[in-house]
Design a protein that fits this description.
The complex is a heterodimer of chains A (about 375) and B (about 475).
Chain A (H helix, E strand, L loop, with lengths): L8 E8 L8 E2 L4 H6 L11 E2 L5 E2 L4 H8 L3 E8 L7 H10 L10 H9 L9 E4 L14 E4 L14 H14 L8 H26 L10 H14 L6 E7 L7 H25 L6 E7 L18 E6 L6 E3 L19 E2 H12 L5 H4 L12
Helix pairs in contact in A: 2-8, 5-6, 6-7, 7-8
Chain B lengths: L2 H14 L5 H10 L1 H9 L9 H7 L9 H14 L3 H13 L4 H4 L2 H14 L4 H10 L1 H6 L13 H8 L10 H10 L3 E3 L2 H8 L14 E3 L9 E3 L2 E3 L3 H9 L2 H15 L6 H16 L4 H9 L2 H4 L11 H12 L9 H10 L22 H15 L5 H13 L3 E2 L1 H11 L7 H12 L4 E2 L8 H13 L9
Antiparallel strand pairs in B: 1-2, 3-4, 5-6
Helix pairs in contact in B: 1-2, 5-19, 5-20, 6-8, 8-9, 9-14, 11-12, 15-16, 15-17, 16-17, 19-20, 19-21, 21-25, 23-24, 23-25
Classes of the chains: A alpha/beta (about 375), B mainly alpha (about 475).
């Protein structure tokens, strides 16, 4: 299939609970790694080597293949100064691009407001999961949150198709009249019609979709399959969001972390194969992030909350490689026992916003940040 | 008992509580409107689910340190309380003095704060504000533990004036500084221990045990301060005494109460009611109970103008639907999902988005939230096994000789669900839906049979209306 000239898409995957960077991109050539991780480590022979110093966890083998094709940028040592080690607060920092005070507008919500200033498309941003991640939240910006694409919409409890048809028809009528001369009733009417429209359009996506890719039955794979279905239905969606976890591996890390990365890596590589099958690999960028890293020293069976982490940027247009310096493990370079971040996460946001979505990043990320070079200017 | 009386009582209970079933409304009407107002304003035994019962079935609600379990626990209380204004008002203060789990990582101390709102929420404003200023969750939330004699931190002092009382434009930057000085030394017991463990323990940075207030005389700046034109060696208590005497405070608090309990938008008649509330505030020496009495007994509140003049907040909507459906009256698997439903709709209990609380009114609703709202309420109301739904079916069957025309079915459902007042076109759409299957025969109905299912589907559809989104 010939690559299309579509508007660029952004697919965001949030690893909830703080992924352990040291067991993801493993500094297996550094003896300090084994000193600090007597129990929770990968053996040198297990690691999928990048070079003599670093390698991927064997549970990200499918992403490693994309790396070998030069499609993966690793942003090592990503974070912010004065890191907060509370999951909730740190997620909010990343969601709102605001480490200094409590903010409410999401950076992707702001981006969507720029992409579709008049909110003409109710599907500019779609979240695959329940509820609205704060990244997407911005006043006046409609976002659809889809738990399951097959059943998305109103009245999922009505099993009888005919009954449901009439119920939806009644709903459309009830939310249709603008005769009320009441601003709130009118607003609810418009919102109800938007919801119906969004659901109607989204519902068409699975039926239009054909693919030879078989996604695994786990949550992240199904969410990315839903994202592919929506993308290939050409509904004008630009931002796709989903989350997976929990990566909060305080105990039993090796087993949990392995299974989580098997899922994520498999899902991302299946999704990438689907993009290629549909000729969409040139206009899609995948961004994977987590709220912070984990403590350098293990706690016996897991790791506690830390600071600097690793983010992933994946796509055909990505200049693969290591970006950001991999933080030093030396005691004197640590930040209270954690990896010290050396690049602000808003540099990565700025790169994505300016070089991928073509937006002015400053007002969205609350300041000017030096972009990385994983995308061409 | 007139439908007018039922309608008015339903309105009162939607605002001063989380709605009521028809049986409950009939009991309330027997007592009389003003007597019910007094009952609501003087909460006795809430008779909510006892802790030991909840804990037996819900381990996640046993120690209440985690946000999900704590939110579900409060949800149980809202669903089962016999003193609904107590918790409705706690929800109001929770939105106004908004403190969030995100920074605390300890939900127990937030529930303690909610308990304080229950205890002091109807009383004297200065008592409430002093308690709020001493509240451990608030102290960490707005950094008053970092507010020292020789290094003041203005966060709490500023928000106290800007968001909690006077409102912007009614104080100067100098007032903020002086206010912060007065609250130096208002901190937590074991603050140093907590700070040291915060650097080591990433899961429970401020420890697992409950926190308590401590006043440290040696860290309190006892010097002279000039605050809002008055000069003295003010303490935090003195500052609050000055704050509650300000016209701007009276107007700010009364306006916020008006918007939460009477109408989202303040029109001219609303301004007049706020004036009366402010007058009650002065007459009662700053008592919230008196202000609310004036509100609930006012002609404005009882008039058509105030009916359905508020967009239901997610928690109100969820708790109201559950109370109407009669579900979750006993420990039930899935209660944490009920609390999470409100999160999906944009309101996580104990997790306000910022110190500003939630943006209310039409900002509650966007297309994603509306889908969640409609689907949740329809799910509760279209389950014929829910006790509240069964009761509605019983009443429909016995009060109508068993057979209902489509019009009758729609009108009776709308009536028993509220009454919900809908536009002619909404009613017509519902009638058209019902008319496809002709008259409904409920004689000899059996649980879950087609006739009952028709009622349940109609209840689901009638609660998915625009009008049902309003309180």
């Amino acid at each position: 299939m010939v690559a299309s000239q579509k508007s660029p898409n952004l697919v965001v995957i949030q690893l909830i609970g703080a992924n352990d960077p040291l067991n993801t991109i493993i500094p297996y050539g550094n003896p300090l790694y084994y000193d600090f991780r007597p129990n929770v480590h990968m053996k040198p022979e297990e690691v999928l080597p990048i070079d003599d110093d670093f390698g991927f966890t064997p549970h990200a083998g499918a992403i490693k293949s994309l790396w070998d094709q030069g499609k993966v940028a690793l942003i090592n040592g990503i974070g912010y100064t004065n890191p907060n080690r509370s999951h909730f607060r740190s997620m909010d920092v990343w969601h709102t691009a605001q480490p200094d005070k409590i903010a409410t507008e999401g950076w992707l919500g702001r981006a969507m407001r720029e992409l579709d200033p008049n909110a003409e498309n109710v599907l500019t941003g779609v979240n695959f999961g329940r509820g609205l991640p704060r990244s997407l939240s911005c006043r006046g910006v409609p976002v659809a949150s889809v738990g399951n694409l097959e059943t998305y919409g109103l009245f999922p409890d009505l099993k009888d198709e005919q009954e449901k048809h009439y119920a939806l028809e009644a709903f459309a009528q009830m939310y249709g009249g603008a005769e009320a001369h009441d601003a709130v009733i009118d607003f609810l009417g418009q919102t109800g019609r938007d919801a119906l429209k969004g659901a109607d359009i989204l519902r068409t996506a699975p039926a239009k979709y054909t693919s030879s890719v078989e996604y695994a039955p786990n949550g992240i794979a199904q969410s990315l399959k839903n994202a592919a279905q929506v993308m290939f239905a050409d509904l004008g969606t630009r931002i796709y969001y989903t989350s997976y976890g929990s990566f909060d591996t305080h105990g039993g890390e090796l087993a949990q972390h392995a299974s989580l990365w098997d899922d994520v890596s498999g899902a991302v590589s299946d999704f990438y194969a689907d993009l290629e099958e549909h000729g969409r690999e040139d206009d899609t960028l995948i961004y994977i992030w987590t709220e912070f890293g984990r403590r350098i020293r293990d706690n016996g069976s897991g790791t506690d909350h830390g600071a600097g982490g690793t983010a992933f940027i994946i796509g055909n247009k990505v200049k693969g490689g290591m970006y950001g310096e991999y933080p030093s493990l030396k005691e004197e370079d640590q930040l209270d026992g954690d990896l010290k971040a050396n690049n602000d996460f808003r540099q990565t946001y700025t790169t994505i916003l300016e070089r991928w979505l073509g937006l002015d990043a400053g007002p969205i990320v609350n300041g000017r940040f030096e972009p990385h070079d994983f995308l061409d200017k | 008992m007139s439908s007018q009386e039922i309608g008015q009582m339903a309105h009162l209970l939607r605002r001063a509580g989380f709605g009521a079933t028809r049986d409950e409304l009939e009991e309330y009407v027997e007592k009389g409107y003003e007597a019910v107002v007094e009952e609501l304003l003087h909460p006795g035994d809430p008779q909510n689910l006892p802790d030991d019962i909840i804990r037996r079935y819900h381990t996640e609600q046993s120690e209440l340190r985690l946000a999900d379990g704590a939110a579900a626990y409060w949800m149980y209380r809202m669903i089962t309380t016999k003193c609904p204004l107590e918790d409705k008002l706690a929800l109001f203060w929770h939105g106004l003095f908004a403190t969030a789990y995100v920074k605390l990582n300890q939900a127990r101390v937030l529930l303690n704060q909610i308990d304080m709102f229950r205890r002091d929420g109807l009383g004297n404003l200065s008592t409430l504000m002093v308690e709020m200023s001493k509240d451990p969750a608030m102290i960490i939330w707005l950094d008053n533990n970092d507010n020292h004699k020789d290094a003041p931190n203005e966060n709490f002092g500023r928000e106290l004036l800007e968001l909690f009382s006077l409102g912007i434009g009614n104080y100067t930057e100098q007032d903020v500084k002086e206010c912060a000085r007065a609250f130096t030394g208002w901190t937590l017991g074991n603050a140093e221990y907590m700070a040291s463990r915060a650097s080591r323990d990433s899961i429970w940075p401020y420890s697992r045990i409950a926190w308590h207030f401590e006043y440290r005389d040696y860290d309190h700046d006892d010097g002279e301060k000039t605050f809002l034109g008055e000069t003295g060696n003010f303490s935090g208590d003195d500052i609050i005494e000055i704050i509650v005497r300000q016209e701007a405070t009276a107007r700010f608090i009364c306006t916020r109460l008006f918007q939460f309990f009477a109408a989202d938008e303040v029109d001219e008649a609303g301004e007049q009611l706020i004036n009366s509330m402010v007058q009650s505030y002065w007459d009662s020496n700053h008592e919230i109970r008196s202000v609310l009495r004036t509100l609930f007994n006012s002609e404005y509140f009882k008039s058509d103008q105030a009916r359905f003049a508020r967009v239901k907040g997610p928690v109100e909507l969820v708790v109201g639907a559950v109370r109407l459906a009669g579900s979750y009256r006993t420990p039930t698997q899935g209660i944490e999902q009920v609390a999470r439903q409100a999160v999906y709709m944009g309101q996580g209990l104990l997790q306000p988005p910022s110190v500003e609380g939630w943006h209310e009114g039409i900002e509650w609703v966007d297309s994603g939230a509306l889908v969640e709202r409609v689907n949740f309420v329809a799910h509760e109301m279209s389950n014929v096994n829910n006790p509240g739904v069964r009761r509605i079916i019983e009443r429909l069957a016995t009060e109508n000789g068993g057979v209902l025309s489509p019009e009758k079915l729609v009108d009776q459902c709308l009536d028993l669900l509220g009454p919900v007042m809908v536009s002619d076109s909404t009613r017509k759409s519902l009638v058209n839906f019902a008319a496809r299957q002709g008259d409904l025969n409920l004689t000899d109905h059996q649980t879950g049979d087609d006739a009952e299912q028709r009622v349940a589907t109609m209840l689901g559809l009638a609660t998915s209306t625009r009008e049902f989104q309003l309180a």
